[in-house]
Design a protein that fits this description.
The protein is mainly α. Helix content is 78%, strand content 0%. The chain has helices at residues 4-13, 19-23, 26-43, 49-74, 85-88, 91-98, 104-121, 127-158, 160-163, 171-183, 187-217, 223-238, 242-268, 270-273, 277-298, 306-313, 324-353, 360-373. The two termini are 46 Å apart. It comes from Bacillus safensis.
Amino acid sequence: MRSPTYWFYEIGLAPFLTEAQSESWIPLFLFSIAFFGITYALALNPSKLVDRIGKILTPILLAVIALIVIKAIATPMGGIGSPHPTYEGSPLFTGFLEGYKTMDALASIVFGIVVVTAEKERGMTDRKSIAAACIKAGLVAAAGLALVYISLAYVGASSPEATGMVGANEGGKLLSLAANFLFGSAGNIVLGAAILFACLTTSIGLVSSCGEYFSSLFPRFSYRTVVLVVSLFSTVVANLGLAQIISLSVPVLVAIYPLAIVIILLSFLDRWINGRRIIYIASLIFTGIFAVIDGLVAAKIPLGGLNKILEATVPLYKLGIGWAIPAVLGAIMVFLFLCLRVHLNSLLNQASKLKTSLSIRERDVFFYVLHILK
């Protein structure tokens, strides 16, 4: 969820700065220029993104993470600690909501553009072949993410006592202290390298995706122009500071993430709903209403008595996922309505064959009722 640039700067670079340098805006400003300069250069050629990210950056990232995890297993920092109080009541739903901050679901939609574009640039034109490539990429990404998160979860769960972070809820700081505990002064360099490559791959993918999307949406702007504008804008945003970035992004993230989840789930059911747009629209409307309310709550905008009413009437609302049931109901209601229409059309066709055996009045009444139901 955090700015990739600021995330690396805070954990991977700041520990090596003096107190005076950390308080100055100059180091972050210079680093953000260098970071997005590299992003811009690597994102200019979409056809080489798969090779650059898949064959160079990602293997380095995974190797660094593996190094930290293997060291943590070989020389345990301690036993598994007690869960943070935030997770004790409902760990599943709390973890689910915290997962919003990874932006993985949003990124999967955006990065799909990168995969499709890269395959087309490599000469692949058949839709089935492109779909197969996307499925393979998705499976590899899912397996990789699961492995990374499980590994980092182990490091975080086993390190609180050794790092003096018992009861803390600052994952980044905990990870930084764990790396320092495992590798000494070189720990921050190892961790900084991991975060750098993680943030760089994310940044390149997002900037490239924005370039592809907006250049196709607005043909007057070339891909290169959009990539440049997005890179410059990101440089400015990165210098706002972490607190400001979080305060602005969390409410928006809470409001749009459920919509992304629903779109992804419906895409898996597209074969059975025959791509009917009305089902997507209805489900997203029902989801959006409650997602926007959740976003307002996250922004600490007072809702008066509405919040209490929703807590008392909407299932799972207290847990932060009140949008789930309305999304399912919206999709089911529209699907049943469409099935009913198909059935009524069949009845109308059958009724048209009986019109000769009915009186004019009986026929008019019969067709009127069927049309009303339809």
